[in-house]
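Quick question, first post here. What does this chain look like in 3D?
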Amino acid sequence: MRPASEAELAEMVRAARGPLAVGGGFTRGTVAGGERLTVAGIAGIELHEPGALTLVAKAGTPVAEVERVLGEAGQRLAFEPMDLRALLGTGGEPTLGGVIATNASGPRRVQAGAARDVLLGVRFVDGTGMAVSNGGRVMKNVTGLDLARLLAGSHGTLGVVTEVALKVLPVPEAVATLAFGGHDPGKAVACMAAALGSPFEVTGAAHDAEAGVTRLRLEGFAGAVAVRAERLAKLLTAWGVAEVVEGPGPWAAIRDVTDFAGRPGDVWRLSVRPSRMAEALALAGGAQRLDWGGGRAWVLVAEGTDLRGRLGAFGARAVLVRAAAETRAALGAFPAEAPGVAMLSARLRERFDPRGLFNPGLVAA
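> Answer (accepted):
Ran it through. Tokens below.
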């Protein structure tokens, strides 16, 4: 099913007699049963006001098209939407609606926020086939903004996003990366915490545990970036001598976890307090990559590994990102929700999707 408009989508939802697997380009793989429903046909940029740092686009608009239009105006999506096609071995074209539905955010989240934090408004079709508009086109209009943010990260289980309004930001004049070698995860987390707690506006803090390399990113005006890089390196001398490299650096690969692409094994995503990440990784084993200053980790383990069982009651949230179909069926992509959260989630789904049409069986991140 590929509707060409919101009205056509609403009619399809009203006429549906069974579950729907909702997506855009399906670049993250099909993780729910039912007839496939894509919003890729509901596409196009509706409004771009560079002076107001605002963009409004239909949900099926390719992310590449959004980035092209913004780039011509010297602007960007500050939250760095991830592209997991290489990691997952999928095809298709990532869409703006898919990015919002999954709250897909890259390394800059530690400084600029996640996708939901720049979401000004949203239109979506609920499970009754009713079109709903929420939020506004400027940040001052916060009426109902919480509902817009609720849709971000719901993985299509509450409604089918048809249009989004976003705040965008200028592209920086210069980028520099500070790299420190010889770090284990504990030392890396301490280094990244010191950097993120400094006044130097770090926009990326990541660690490659296999190589023992910790990287910190600075962005802004060229002169200011050079000064900040020098001062940050001096501040962090306790963690070694920093190599400073100008230019984009490896941040796109860090964002998309391309180091694990093509390597055998299952890929998990862990979320835990940075102060406890080193302990969690010691239990997890495998190959490891840290992001968000140590708040997120990507772990590559042997096929069929139950990483949640290995972590036990540690408290880390483990999401299965890449695995064989039988492993996904046995373990589930998302961990079970706490009873209180599960009750709230059930009530929300009952309110927005009373017939249980959208991505059934998928627990949202």
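The chain has three domains: 6-170, 174-256, 260-331.
Residues 138-145 have pLDDT under 50 and may be disordered.
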